[in-house]
Amino acid sequence: MKQNCSLHSARDTNMDGIYDNSMEKMEIEDLCITPADETNQHLPVREVPSSSCSKTRRSFRPKLQATKSFPPYSQCIGGLGEDGEGNNDLTSELVSTCSSVVPDNKCEKSAETETKTNQIVKCSREAVKAKWRSRRKEMSWRSCDVDTGTQEEGRWCGKRMESVGKERKDEENEGDVGKHQRDKNSSFDKDKDEEEEKKTGTSSGSTVNMELMDTLHSKDEDPDGTNESSTKRHLILSRLLHSSSTSSSCSSINFSSAESDEVFSEGEDAASKSQNFKKSRSWRTYLTMMHWSLRRQSSWVQLAGHQGNFQLSKGGEVLKLYSEGEAKCLDSLMRDPLRPFVPQYHGLVTRGDHCYIRLEDLLSGLRRPLIMDCKMGVRTYQEEELVKASTKPNLRSDMYQKMVKVDPLAPSEEEHKRKGVTKWRYLQWRDTTTSTSTLGFRIEGLMMEDGSVQRDFRRIRTLAQVTEALLYFTRSHLQTLEAYHSRLLALGDALKNSTFFRKHEVIGSSLLFVHDHSKASVWMIDFGKTTPLPDSMELQHNIPWVEGSREDGYLIGLTSLTASLSQAINKASGLQEDSCVASWRAEQIEQLTEAKGIAILLKQKKS
Ligand SMILES: Nc1ncnc2c1ncn2[C@@H]1O[C@H](COP(=O)(O)OP(=O)(O)OP(=O)(O)O)[C@@H](O)[C@H]1O
Ligand SMILES: O=P(O)(O)O[C@@H]1[C@H](O)[C@H](O)[C@@H](OP(=O)(O)O)[C@H](OP(=O)(O)O)[C@H]1O
Q1: According to the UniProt entry, which residue ranges have a biased composition of type Basic and acidic residues (predicted)?
Q2: pLDDT value of position 31
Q3: 452 and 369 in contact (C-beta within 8 Å)?
């Protein structure tokens, strides 16, 4: 044994967290714990009710002004929730309503047509609204009645989304090269994507001028500014999200297609074409290889927490710097009803001079994932910090600096004089200036599908603001929101049955929300400050903390998050309803105008 993993917490050690390609060097010497049951991984969760309108999704794509770039969502999420059947039903129903009201010969008199158009639009809008209302009712009923048995088994929600992913792929294969090559950061496409590229011979790295693509697609998506309300909404959010949005560490790659344009320019003879084709193929292969290797290096992202705490590993695992407390928690959790909500724990490993906890990589298998880290509980400091602060205060100048940077008036006169604050004071200030102490959780950071990361959510204090953030994070996608909601309800049930939860004070732990075009899930992570209670003690987790009670308010946070997701679901379905009506209306007007045109032509022909 190279290092005694249980001797000390190595958390303070600074490490470079850069991905080490030479995995062979890794010394797997201390597999202290048997690997977790693999069969528990990636089980699909029940299908969530579908209620989206594909057209609406295409036309409704909220934009956030403050962030640097957001690729069109249609391919990532817009196709999600495939509700083809339902929507077709709806559309065909409306079209048949329309055709029954509008006889074939009615277009001869334009004034009459206009009146009829208005009538149809009005009556059909009512029909659509009624339909949506009943759907929404059905949905909310269904989300309350979650099949927790299935949920507990399942680790991912939204199996239904996969078929749409397939649909999307078909669309891409039909020749829209641009769509295929949108991945600006190229960080998250994994083997699936690569295989796809190999098959089609198109590197997602080539022909990428993302900014142009973004512009084009954003025009596509909202040609006449019909998304005004959502834009406004997200402008509000962007104001909430302080200006410090930082770009992710993921590399971004821009490849030009110039070489292929040259190769296949007109007027070339077949021989030179074939020669050039060979050249271009080797060039393309080189680019693709480079692209893949870059992508592999940046396929994992650490959204929050201490820098240098993590290392990438192979086989869908991440390595987190060892701490005895966390390892013990994870060990217990593998035998607790909470297991399906925690990354699989595969024991310990020594790498170099350090010991690591081997964890399931929760991003593994996701394409361009969106991630959100919510730190749970009404406080993020342990009671011992408070005791330390009053008995042997250790002033932290780094924390004082962080505090002053945000609010120069926050430190007391004394703290200003000493240019230092205790850790407890700093953490408590963070808790009271964010939603932690009021809502029982705070958003620590989120990453969108283009790799852009936002970490400053200190202005988010109310439930309504959290709801806006959730709508932004999920792009108001109903099925994703519903999947998250169901998962939280299932987590709530598991927590009720968990001995681990009853017997531990859970501080500074996070819920990690991850989704892509086909899957969504929420996971409990970070048990570094989770401590077991004395034998006789149990916590309720849903009452305010008073010194000595050790209550953490974890369930207060879970309740707030669940409520906020419900609000977001209501808003998203309302938006879809309105947007669906609008797009149907536009379509009907277009059809009638076309019919009117044909009638005029016929009339002219006759005369
Ligand atoms: N198993 C995992 N799979 C994928 N990503 C993970 C996993 N565990 C952690 N992460 C990523 O790393 C980030 C930090 O994780 P974690 O909170 O465990 O670290 P930490 O250094 O202990 O944090 P803190 O400083 O808040 O105590 C998370 O926000 C998430 O982005
Ligand atoms: O997010 P911020 O504002 O940067 O503040 C950090 C955050 O609260 C961490 O949770 C905390 O680590 P622990 O959870 O381990 O206490 C860290 O303390 P540290 O500097 O002592 O590590 C703080 O600096």
Answers
A1: 157-191
A2: 36
A3: no
